[in-house]
Structure formats: structure tokens, C-alpha cells
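C-alpha cells please, single chain.
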Amino acid sequence: MSDTPVIGITSYVEPASRGDWVDVPSALIPHSYVRKVEEAGGIAVLIPPRLDSAHDDHRLVRALLERLDGVIIAGGADVAPELYEAQRHPTVQDSRPDRDTTEVAIAEVSAAVDLPVLGICRGMQVMAVARGGRLEQHLPDLVGHDDHSPAPATYGSHPVETVPGTRIADLLGPRVDVPSYHHQSVVTHPGYDPAAWAPDGTLEAMEDPTCRFRLAVQWHPEEGDDPRLFVALVTAARSYAAERAPRGG
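Here you go.
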């Protein structure tokens, strides 16, 4: 049996063009996610959102997660504010109900089965909302600057300070500079402990200490040079796979 864990990465369904094929609906995610998983020693597979939101989402997601050793809930468009009972801010992007429904279900079921999970940017926000948390819909209104998302399609960089005693601090040390691209942030996060902060008070990481590996960061580690979060996820996934493997007679 291979000890290479399989890591699912949530993705979009977006129109893509290749040669004569124009605007073909395709499952997409930046390849940087795949590359980081592979460099950390895992096998990356994409999880496309379900386009027909059905009442059996949790049953189907459970069947999916039974075949995986870990999950990355990836970055992307804003989570629909209706999911946390907020009025929509003018800056909020068009909702992606396919991703919202699929990823909230993944967040809920993965917690129930204690599957290793890393949330990235939107993924952190999904994980918070899935447990009844709330988001700040336009961070510049709160912090008074655009450092977290300086320009369209342009990653910013800023330091974060980790919270002593957290798993994030154990992995990354007391301070790290991170690539950043988000205009929203987590305000409340039931069931998660704060694990890192930006200098302006923005929550930059959270974790569930009751789970084997359930971390989320607001920044984009797949766009940086630091592999430690991905190595930690793959390591946890490898342990998870070994524990559930059938014992030979």
C-alpha cells in the first residue's frame, strides 16, 4: 500500500479556452496549490463544486472524504453574506452558490470525521461561517488601508505574529511575512482558537485544538516560498491514512 496521501483541493467550475475550444466549463484551480501539495509529498486531486445543489450534499461529501486523506479548502470568491445573515456590502463579489454549498458541507463533514484540513483565504472564511461565524465584508473600511489586497490580481505582503502555544506558532515560529490577497476577514469563529494576527488586528489564522489537524490561514501560502503548512498537512494526512488502513492478518 502506498504511503503517499491523497489531498483533495476544492476548485471552481469556470469557462476555459484551449485552442479551438472556447469557454468550455472546466474544473479549475491555480496550479500553485497542486505544486505545493506534490512538493510536500502528497497526491493532489481536484474537488469540483456540485452544480446541482441537492439535499444529499452531506451524504455525497462523506462518500468523497472517505476516499481522501486530507483536504485544502482553497481561496476564491467572497462567501455569500446571506449565509451568515448579513446585508450585502457593495464591494462583495457575485456569489458562487455551487462552491458555497459544497465547501460548507466539506467543512462540516471533515470536522465530524476528523479529516486533516487546511483552509486558505476564502477557505478560512468558509470554515468560520460553517460553524456560525461572521465576516467583515470589506476590510479597508475597518483597518483604513488596502495592504491586504493592494491592487487587482496583485498579492501584497505583510507580517503576521502567531499566538504562542498554538500549532501555527509551532509550525511557523513567532513571526512570518505572508503573501496576501483578501478584502474580507473573519470576525467571529466559533470552535476555533485565534492563531495569528496582522499588525492592524486582522485575524490571520485560526485552528481547532480538538482536531488532529484543522488549521486555516487568511493569507496565500501557495503563492509563497514557505512549504511548512503543506508539509504539515501532508504529514497529518499520511498519519490519518495509516490509522484507518486495514490491518493484515
